[in-house]
Design a protein that fits this description.
Largest sheet: 7 strands, mixed
Number of strands: 7
CATH architecture: 3-Layer(aba) Sandwich
Order of helices and strands: HHHEHEHEHEHEHHEHHE
CATH class: Alpha Beta
Strand order of the largest sheet: 3-2-1-4-5-7-6
Number of helices: 11
Distance between the termini: 30 Å
Strand content: 15-25%
Radius of gyration: 19 Å
Length: 257
């Protein structure tokens, strides 16, 4: 019997975990992000995801009261602050208190009403509450149980949801380096098409927009070395290996429903 799309997603995501013997040698947490790098830009980027959110916020209200935007996995709030001019309240959800601090500081600096909710989605969905529009950018690949994650996003939105994902798992481009430095052959990564299959399994038919992000600066070899669980003395080797790789794919997919 063939696996369902949600089962396939779970298996692929679980397969992206790192062997304990490699994690045991890591000099630093390979998954840690510096919240200082996640502040929202002063001027929001004009993207299909922002356009979709603004279109939903432009619809007639379905209730009396403030217009709210819920940003799930908000980081520094780039997704929600990009549409703040059409909202009365931004609610940011993140499991990292440092990210919520950046979100709160950016909102306060711009005079935007906000509320921060610490925890993992969807376990804190009730605390986050219902919003007019729900945003979720670049969090989907952090989930193992994708179906209940999507169901909770849908239930939290009065008007609609906008989700942004990269075309494939954002760390898949490092797979050749795992082979090079650890002889670790990574399993097939999940893609936006795998995500779409889970939508369809749930009976959700999103609008799908595929687009390309602008090229980014060369990858920081220090950051890559930490991701690869390598010590600082091997950063030069990592820099040389990065020069042999193709640029990171920039395909991005916006789902709105």
């Amino acid at each position: 019997m063939q696996d369902s799309p949600s089962d396939r997603w779970r298996e692929m995501q679980e397969g992206r975990g790192l062997p304990p013997e490699i994690l045991a040698t890591a000099p630093a947490n390979p998954w840690k992000h510096d919240p200082a790098h996640f502040g929202a830009p002063e001027k929001p980027h004009d993207t299909p995801s922002r356009d979709a959110a603004l279109a939903l916020l432009g619809e007639p209200p379905t209730h009396r009261g403030p217009v709210t935007v819920l940003d799930v996995g908000c980081g520094g709030g780039s997704a929600s602050l990009a549409v703040a001019e059409q909202a009365d309240l931004l609610v940011g959800v993140d499991h990292n208190p440092g990210m919520l601090e950046v979100f709160a500081v950016d909102c306060a600096a711009r005079g935007v009403e906000h509320r921060a909710v610490l925890g993992e989605w969807p376990s804190i969905a009730d605390e986050a509450g219902i919003a007019d529009v729900v945003l979720c950018h670049h969090v989907g690949y952090n989930t193992v149980e994708f179906a209940p994650f999507l169901v909770a996003l849908t239930a939290a939105a009065r008007r609609g949801v906008v989700m942004e994902l990269t075309g494939q798992h954002p760390m898949a481009w490092l797979d050749p380096l795992w082979i090079r430095f650890h002889d670790l052959h990574r399993p097939e990564p999940a893609t936006a098409d795998d995500a779409l299959a889970v939508f369809e399994e749930l009976g959700i038919t999103p609008t799908v927009t595929r687009w390309e992000r602008p090229a980014r600066l060369p990858e920081d070899p220090v950051w890559v070395a930490r991701r690869l669980c390598l010590p600082a003395e091997r950063v030069d080797e990592v820099a040389a290996a990065l020069a042999d790789l193709r640029p990171r794919p920039r395909t991005t997919v916006t789902f709105s429903w």
